[in-house]
Design a protein that fits this description.
Oligomer: single chain
Number of helices: 4
Number of strands: 3
Order of helices and strands: EHHHEEH
Radius of gyration: 71 Å
Length: 209
């Protein structure tokens, strides 16, 4: 096999991976650029080999980094546990404060509901008083109207009564005056009857006058 060309198995053995791992890393586009078939085997050109090696180098670096993290993790577990305990204490304190505030909010809500209920009752009582006042005013207006109507019906009768009384009194006065005139006339007549007849004597020369 040419030094510049390697089969998939040769490159996999060199990298310490399987042929399947190489096939999974390479895309169809890259396979067309890097792979060629010689006989019944696929070979990879030099550019493809370099690119595939870089792919697995990055994988190895990631694995090494993860290994270092795993090695450092046991050393930092104690510190993390202490930090977690402190954080848990802070979280518990905050949760207690939140719970206390919730209770205060609940009490305030209950107080607000009670005040609203009292205010609603007061408003209902005020509305009832206003309705009763309006009803009383309406009844008073109706009573006044009825009284005025009764007065209007009574006044003509009283006027008629007063007129009849006046006419009766006038008639009585006329009759009284007539009686007085008649009595005066009778008295004058009686006085004339009692008065002696006076005959004037005339001188003889006045007889023919």
């Amino acid at each position: 096999m040419s030094d510049n060309l390697k089969t998939i198995k040769e490159l996999a053995d060199e990298l310490g991976v399987s042929k399947t791992a190489i096939n999974k890393k390479v895309t169809d586009r890259e396979r067309k650029l890097w792979f060629a078939k010689i006989g019944n085997k696929f070979v990879i050109n030099e550019d493809g080999q370099k690119s595939i090696k870089r792919m697995f180098d990055r994988v190895n670096e990631n694995q090494e980094s993860q290994t270092e993290n795993l090695e450092q993790k046991p050393n930092s577990q104690t510190e993390n546990l202490r930090n977690n305990n402190e954080n848990n204490a802070d979280i518990k304190y905050i949760l207690d404060i939140i719970e206390y505030q919730k209770e205060q909010i609940k009490d305030l809500q209950n107080t607000k509901d009670e005040q609203f209920k009292q205010l609603s009752n007061m408003q209902n009582l005020l509305d009832q008083q206003q309705r009763l006042a309006l009803q009383d005013k309406k009844l008073l207006e109706e009573y006044k109207s009825e009284i005025n109507e009764l007065k209007a019906l009574k006044m003509p009768q009283e006027d008629m009564k007063d007129g009849s009384s006046i006419r009766g009194e006038a008639q009585e006065e006329i009759e009284r005056l007539k009686a007085q005139l008649k009595l005066s006339e009778e008295e004058r007549n009686k006085a004339k009857e009692k008065e002696p007849v006076k005959i004037e004597s005339k001188k003889w020369w006045q007889l023919w006058k």
